[in-house]
Write a structure and sequence with these properties.
Blueprint (H helix, E strand, L loop, with lengths): L2 H34 L26 H4 L19 H20 L5 H21 L4 H17 L4 H26 L6 H11 L7 H23 L7 H20 L2
Helix pairs in contact: 1-3, 1-4, 3-4, 3-9, 4-5, 4-9, 5-7, 6-7, 8-9
């Protein structure tokens, strides 16, 4: 590999990483506001402590926290709280996930919705951990990117819709039927909508694996959550997001394999 090919490969990796980073950052800013917003309030991102509206440069990755006063202390925009690691952590994880996607499959236009979706998954998991819900806007964005991925990758849109409908039905069954049997909520409506959005990303043969990995991770994370917080109810989105990300990487591996 000569220098031009080396730098081209590095540039491709950075493109995937930056796409995921931008998606993770913006989804976190707007998703946090959506999860914390009361009816009638502005949808523009605010500081959750003083409710100051974020300035335009604070919407963007790195700039949102790197250029704040005493940035090393990870302050909120108003400076009233320190040690807020969420935003830089989300951006860093998103950046790494995007690079990994390009490293597996190589750069192509098909990876644009994939990298953006990986960034969304990080934001969804973090918001569910913080608020116990998944904003509808992020589920809709995940579904829209899934549809775009099918079109760009010349996938079967009909089978994608069938998978989405099947997972939606399964999610509703778990949310309504199984919850009644157990006597407590087993799956929130945000999780049900996530199921439907995930169906647009998954071939029918991979859906059972998505469900199995989600359940396994959910059981492990549930035990950890109960031990740490003492609560019997735990956010399921991190397990769903990790499972879907794993399935996406597996599909990229198959896509890259001759």
């Amino acid at each position: 590999m000569d220098n031009s090919e080396f730098f081209a490969a590095i540039f491709d990796l950075l493109k995937g990483g930056l796409l995921s980073l931008v998606a993770a950052s913006l989804a976190t800013n707007f998703g946090y506001r959506s999860a914390d917003r009361l009816p009638g309030e502005s949808r523009k991102p605010h500081c959750v402590f003083c409710l100051r509206t974020l300035q335009l440069h604070e919407y963007f990755p790195l700039f949102g926290w790197l250029f704040r006063s005493n940035a090393k202390s990870l302050p909120c925009p108003c400076g009233k709280r320190k040690g807020l690691w969420t935003q830089p952590a989300v951006e860093l994880i998103g950046f790494v996930l995007g690079i990994a996607a390009v490293a597996i499959a190589g750069w192509s236009t098909v990876l644009i919705p994939v990298c953006l979706a990986l960034g969304l998954l990080v934001a969804i998991a973090m918001i569910d951990l913080a608020f116990g819900l998944i904003p509808d806007e992020l589920n809709f964005g995940l579904a829209l990117l899934g549809f775009a991925g099918l079109v760009l990758g010349q996938g079967d849109v009909f089978l994608g819709l069938v998978g989405a409908a099947g997972l939606l039905g399964l999610g509703l069954l778990l949310a309504i039927g199984y919850s009644k049997i157990r006597g407590r909520e087993m799956l929130g409506l945000g999780d049900v909508k996530f199921f439907a959005a995930a169906g647009l990303w998954l071939p029918l043969m991979i859906i059972p694996w998505f469900l199995f990995i989600s359940g396994l991770l959910g059981a492990v994370l549930g035990l950890v959550w109960h031990r740490v917080s003492g609560s019997k109810e735990f956010p399921f989105a991190p397990a769903l997001c990790a499972s879907l990300a794993g399935c996406l990487y597996y599909q990229l591996y198959l896509y890259a394999t001759p």
